[in-house]
């Protein structure tokens, strides 16, 4: 899954899904593999007005092969009704290091806190229940280039699954690494039915 807005006006045939890579400026590692994208399906209700339903499904030409360096992230079925307010999530990505700055060549991460919908609406009046906000005082959030995937998603670590992570959000808009501004993300648990319906034959963890 990715953010729908990442591919607006783009031809998915010009892109590949790359797995097993940490630094995009160095030679590919032995674990790196590229997969051709053969279809792109945005949510039919996605709107650029407020980025509601900002999610899409990419299908690759081959099944992605897992190894000790490449593995899946779980869909958040067990968190379908979770509120997440107060939870700490991890954002991963290769976005810019600061607004207008250079893109990070190496994968980076930052831990952020989920704030309540009511708190977020004081800044983002168009917020819907299919979105989740993150903000940590004194810290930056996601930045330009961090939207969608293989750019970051919001992960919740789950000790019951031996450290495996659940993708509870997809970076959508806001923040831009600016302190004092919340980041707005697509709330994946709210769209699980659509993901499953549009992923025939997929194996979910």
UniProtKB/TrEMBL annotation:
Residues 1-200 form the Peptidase S1 domain. One of its GO terms (biological process) is proteolysis. The keyword Disulfide bond applies. One of its GO terms (molecular function) is serine-type endopeptidase activity. CDD domains: Tryp_SPc (cd00190). Keywords: Disulfide bond. It comes from the Eukaryota. It holds the Pfam family Trypsin. PANTHER family: TRYPTASE-RELATED. Belongs to the peptidase S1 family. CLIP subfamily. This is Putative serine proteinase. The gene is SP2.
